[in-house]
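Let us work through a complete example step by step.
Step 1: write down the sequence.
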Amino acid sequence: MANHKSALKRHKQSLLQQSRNRANRTRVKNVVKAVNAALSENNLDAARSNLVSATSVLAKAAQKGAIHWKKAARKISRLAHAINVAGKKAD
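Step 2: predict the structure and record it as tokens.
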């Protein structure tokens, strides 16, 4: 444990940021699961609406630094691609 006042403050700040990052990453996992669940049920309308919210959550998590911006872009791209493929199969 740190002994200096500034080091104690940095430690406290890092714990707060760690909990924020964990919450953001959990939120990301949940919205991605929602899109995939809608896709597995062949519910394209729900999948598309979930993709809109997932895009927002992923972009916000990347902006806050909870996940890397390229990882967020990759997840968005793969979800959109899966929805487009499912839409073409349905037609």
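Step 3: interpret the result. The chain is about 85% helix and 0% strand.
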